[in-house]
Amino acid sequence: MTYKRSVMALLVSAALYPTVQSAQAATPLSLPLGHLEERLTITVGVNGGPAQKYIFDTGSDQFNAVLSQGNASQMPQLDQAQAYIYGDDAWGGYWLQHKRASTLTYYTADENPTAVSTPDSGGHGYVIGHVEHLLLDGKHGGRISKDPIIVPGFQKPFYIDLDAQERIDSGQPTEEQNEEKKNFYGTFGVGDFLFEGSGGSPFATVTKSGFVVAGNDSTPDNDDTSTLSPGCAPCTILNLSPAVRAQFTTQVPWAAHYDEGDRQTFPGSGAPASTQHEGQFKYTFVLDVNGQQKTIEVPGDALKGAVLFDTGNPTHVTIESAKLGSVLQQNGLKIITKGDETSSNLVSMTLHPTDSSGNPVGEGILLQDPTGENNLTIDSDGSDEKTWNITMGLGFFLQYSVMYDLENRLTAFTPFFVSADNFTTDDQLSQITAEMGNPMKAPKGDPSGQQATKGYLGLAGAISGTGDLTLAPNIVVNMTGANTYTGATRVQKDAVLFLSGPGSIAASSELVNNGWFDISTHGNANPLWGVSDSLNDVTLQSLSGSGLITLGSRNLVLNNAHGDFSGRITDQNLRSGGVDHEKGGLTIAGGRQTLSGNSDYTGQTRIASGAALQLASSGTLTSDVIAEGAFVANGATSGHVEIQSGGLAGGNGRVGSLTAAQGSTVAPGNSIGTLNVDGDMTLAHGSLYAAEVDASGSDQIKVAGTATVQGADVTVIPYARNNLLAQSTTADNLIGSTGTLLTADGGVSGQFASVESGPFITPSLTYQPDSVAVTLARSDLSFADVAATRNQRSMAAALDQLPASSSVYQSLLLAPTEGDARQAMRQLSGQIHADIASSLVNNSRYLRDTLNSRLRQAQGQIDSSDIRQNEDGAWASLMGNWQHASGNNNASGFHDSTFGVLLGVDGDVADGWRVGAATGFTRTSLHGNHASADSDNYHLALYTGKSWDNVNLRAGTAYTWHRIETDRSVNYYGQSDSDKARYSAGTGQIFAEAGYSLNNDWLNLEPFANLAWVDYRSNRINERGGASALSADSQHTSAALSTLGLRADKRWQTGKESAITLRGELGWLHQYNSPEREVGLRFQGAGTTFNTGTVPAARDGMVMKAGAEVSINDTASVSLNYTGMYSDNYQDNGLSADLKWTF
């Protein structure tokens, strides 16, 4: 709806329009619009008044409103009533006066409006055109006033519309195309132009930057409640940020010409104001003439005209220019009007924006029916005989979002429905569908083809949350917000994601791109967006999928790579249809990325220190590669590969040429393989060639050009193609093997400075004009020479006696360092068998301690004649103990646990002797270094005791049968084995103890001396496994022990037949024979035995015990006991719960 100023418009003093400096809010503010009866609407409350619906009109420069008399009377009046006429020769207009409103509140557009925002105007308010009358020219129907209103400058008289006046007086809406129903209270003018005497746009009053009109949403016609897009839709965005500006790639500068009376700045904000017709375009019209499409290129003179973008005009386009209308009609344009319905044969129209010199400034803007089923709605009034001006109406805004950038003096356009609202991936908006966007043809370069219709959605707000963000098929998203969501970003097949301007998905855990991902307009692609050059690079965490990535001139950075991308990465600008490469690149800043597709970007591929890029066998690159990290080329790259200090190049693929700088490494293959260089190769001084060599060959570099060796070093890595330990006991001999390290069709220039290998291999190089070969020999260092412990030396001596064909022998030759060899010896030693033997000997003390405790309990219950003693009895003991052995400079530590139950019965036989028998079962579980063992233990014991006054004697013997299972893992530098064994063993023991009771009324004491002999013997051991399996003959371990200590107990009588007793013990444990505990082992099929020892037993240790016993009655008692033993290498703790009864 275009408003021309009245010729009698009052010159209003500038004092009435003070500048609002405090209202320059930079944060975008989304305000809801609505669709109703082919109108774009906005719902506003003035000065706290009711929410009222207005026509949202970019073709008007002020807010003209029908307000209730009560509301209007409270607003200051700024001037006398004036006439505002529709056009220079229109049929009506407004009779209104300017008033100042202090606030405007914006509401939702639904049937029950909800307040959204009341922007701060800085205390200066808004100028409102308060409508007093609606005017008619008398030639149109309706009741009119008797006396005309004379408008100077117009020959015809105007009259008051009496029907409208009744609605105005009663506070009802006055406007609508349908005369039978009025829906609107006036016109909300937001034009970016300003006439002298006008109130000015309410938007331009409070923003210095500008605003966006996004009427091209997917909301169905005449439906104000169905919103599919994030936030409001349709929507207007007040204030422009870089994220909002970056949604618009087609930006058209304002026309420089101002008419007399045009104001060049807005009151309130001071923002620049345009002219009513702004920007210059070339036009292309396509007509349907007799079933054939005819294209019309408008003459060059049309560049002298300009365009008004007017949401108040219900058509697609209105031809104001008589000249342009004549050209179109001469070429077959037809406009057909039937009542309120207007149709034409205009199929499409394209606006080609230009600068004042006619040079293109952006892509053409195509206006057509998205479905292709209908022609455009066009009107031609022919009122303008001087210019080539036209008006683009509401139909244009239903297909394009329009940005009025006041600050940069331009108007911009995008097919995307632009939203500045924030949302979270934690709700239903975690999936973006085509229905949320503006339906348009697929963009140029879309891999799905340009015939498809897709939904265009521009996201300028911030997306947060922890959920994934998924772009469903046929959605095109232009993302410009600084997003913080941490879930994955998933671009499905036939979906498109443009990351533009300051847009960021750096916090997203990964990009899974099976559609099209474009970053060609990221960062400062347009200086008018206000985005720093530092944002030109795009950062992702990781990348996977099989889609298309277009870089343009941008660099894609992966910070935490862990994906495999099998699609194409290119730097061609497919969005603009370009075929030239723009030097876009890829940087792997962290993690390990795999590329398995065919990429043709021509910028650099950079790999940071600590990061890795693997080019799969199916992958290709055309870029140069600069690696401070690892580049594994199993595919092919035609570019130059430069390995910098700390970097590595490897793989079985092809590279264009290769330079290895000082401090870098070249390691062909993934195991043994060949790296092909199609050009020249240079290995600088201080670089390293790491070559794997096995019994049948070696790594190799094949150079098609010249190989220049400038004193690089060679490290030969002995290698086995298969796991030697998992094979038979024999293997191919590495000693004497040869391999070709380097060939060059153009010859080899220079030599390597040094060649070295592991401790047991001596390599030598042989040079030919076009090749370099290596031969391996056995070094002078024996396995025993590198051994560092007694166990290692014993086993290494046995290894040295193995034949060279032994798999174990060959596996030791592969050791990269002496330390690796020692670690291998530790794993091969079979210490688990010594560990379990020592553990079972140590744990034998729990059986004799239990028997001793029973005898002492029977001998010591003498405090009360009411509690029976020295009678036949039975007992049960639940026990558990935990032992930890600390490693030393020879053996690794271990820890074990034992749980079980012991049962016994005893009684007096003759002359005060008590004799008993016990049996039981326990299970021991032991965990050592890469090994474990379990033993089921079956116990049988006899015991006896007698007291002579204060002298107490206790003795016993026991035997335990063990069923042992062991499991140990061997794993060193690629060689591994798992060895298991089952065997039986037995432990016999005898013990005797003498004690002297010192009893008084307060405490019972007993100094004591204990002697024990423990003897462990195992059957043959035969492990089941690979080459590292061990065998052993019967093993024997014994221990002669003594314990000297003091016991104390105290009993409290709690009843005639009940009592509580507390006991404690402290002693010194000493072993007399050698504390070393070893087993003799050998590799199966070998004759040499080696000894492997466990952690030595404690020569001396401290024994501690504590317990509490409750005598329930004269026949039963229960007790809970703790026992511990502490020494330099061992810590042993146990608990038992005992039940005893007599009969």
UniProtKB/TrEMBL annotation:
Signal sequence region: 1-25
GO cellular component, one term: outer membrane
Domain Autotransporter: 867-1143
Cited Gene3D superfamilies: Autotransporter beta-domain
Keyword Isomerase belongs to the record: no
Pfam families in alphabetical order: Autotransporter
Segments forming a coiled coil: none
Protein name per its UniProtKB record: Autotransporter outer membrane beta-barrel domain-containing protein
